[in-house]
Amino acid sequence: MRxxxxxxxxxxxxxxxxxxxxxxxxxxxxxxxMTYAGHKENLEPAWTKIKFAQGDIxxxxxxxxxxxxxxxxxxxxxxxxxHVDRSITDAGSFVRTNVMGVFSLLQAxxxxxxxxxxxxxxxxRFLHVSTDEVFGTLGDEGKFSETTPYAxxxxxxxxxxxxxxxxxxxxxxxxxxxxxxxxxxxYGPRQFPEKLIPHMINCALSEKPLPVYGNGRNVRDWIHxxxxxxxxxxxxxxxxxxxAYCFGGNAERRNxxxxxxxxxxxxxxxxxxNGKSYxxxxxxxxxxxGHDWRYAIDDSRAERELGFRRKYxxxxxxxxxxxxxxLENRVWMNAVLAKPKS
Length: 342
Hints:
The protein is built from 12 helices and 12 strands. By secondary structure, it is α/β, with parallel strands linked by helices.
């Protein structure tokens, strides 16, 4: 039976991945520092079926204890500081978690792995979840792939790139069987409301301005969180140690078009009392510092080698389902927004 240590498992993507593990019948241990973005509410569907530990991935002794006591066969690292705006004003916390935290997690995993039997060593995997932002920015054409050189432009993406490089080095130097995945922008249930889609939903429902950076023409590729988690699972089960795999949504959209699509979905599901469209609330604000122009991912290698397939072929379909989830879970939204942002 597989036994997973999922770090950052009380966050947005991590908790959705935990759901998929539980559905497969795997044993799951969640380690989460429970910062502002981690919530036990995210784990409610699986709470009675997992083991939970509150702590930091930099706590090597705690990680070592969890690995040994639970005979972990797979480590999946979602733990990260991930909001670009926050990284601009507080780069230090991003370096501590995304670089030094990954280093500590790798060290504890390597020490544990070195003491496993030959058979257990062969099946063990350490998967590190990263982002397409480590590749920098694209012009109007082309896509990122596994061969794209790293060129991070924000403190967030630079810190993620640092962690990625450490993971690669621990494979090549120590032979720890690692995998890295790089994904495009995620969306779906339980995303913390500082990110674009839930933030716009919350602002709209609160009758507040919908702040769009610059002219709103920056382009992102969107992948539903369920599809991303399925991709991670395919990398764990079929990926080659030492390799990296990219996962995208094949759904490039300008930011302004995403916001307008959110407004249209809300107009349909929860019309405003004044009868006007939520688009009336759109406001353009000063652009983010170093704002990357466009991201897009070519995940043909994952499709070819891992059998990766997306459940959500239509972004608009996935977005409508996401808007419906937030409308039906306002209690969740209010709970996470009430949590101190520290």
